[in-house]
Amino acid sequence: MKNFTKLIWKHSSQPTPIIPRANIGDEKVMFTVFFSEEGIQFIHQLPHGETMNSRTFVKDVLTPLQNKYVQQKHAKQIEITIHHDNSRLHTAKHTKQFLQNSVFDQLQHPAYFPDIAPCDLSLFGILKKELKGVMIANELQAYDLVSRILAEIHQIEIWRTLRSWITLLQWIAKHDGDYQSKDKR
Q1: Do 67 and 58 touch, CB atoms closer than 8 A?
Q2: 104-141 exposure pattern, b = at least 16 Cβ within 10 A, e = fewer
Q3: Residue 67 domain-assigned?
Q4: In which domain, by residue range, is 168 found?
Q5: Fewest C-beta atoms under 10 Å: which of 14, 30, 64, 110?
Q6: Whole-model pTM above 0.90?
Q7: CB neighbours (10 Å) of residue 85?
Q8: For 106-160, what is each residue's pLDDT tens digit?
Q9: Is the pLDDT of residue 182 over 60?
Q10: H or E element in which residue 163 lies
Q11: How many domains, in total, are found in the chain?
Q12: CA dihedral angle for residue 66, residue 67, residue 68, residue 74, rounded to 10 degrees
């Protein structure tokens, strides 16, 4: 499908460029990203054709993340707080049981607040900007590209993201959870 741009500066003798556009039927790739003030800690790409459910989340995301912390940080000596939203796979019995017996201390996510995850405040925006117009041939290329972009995010940007997130949570708490008026800040 050709997707001609609506407005562009070009010489009349130049051809109109074709800009790639995502279509509804285009394949999507799901990434799960965990980060801390030290940087990106874990990236998981859901394989093509698989569905993310509680068992997959525990087996392919939480268990390897926990193993990483146990090996690198001696997790029994430090507190590791984990945050995720209230999607079904995060609140499923299997996930909750794993978290209760894990090295993680879970920071509770308020109900009906889908867009206050720290990744939504900055990191995914950076990813979207960097990937705009990029044609990706396969899953390996997608993983390599996403991993490289996330690894190149400067630590100051990650700190800024975490500070913004804390400020947002404080604002919501101060306004008795009235998140609907966040635009009036």
Answers
A1: no
A2: beeeebeeeeeebbbbebbbeebbeebeeeeeeeeeee
A3: yes
A4: 31-184
A5: 14
A6: no
A7: 15
A8: 887 766 665 677 888 888 889 999 998 888 888 999 999 999 999 999 999 999 9
A9: no
A10: helix 155-174
A11: 1
A12: 90
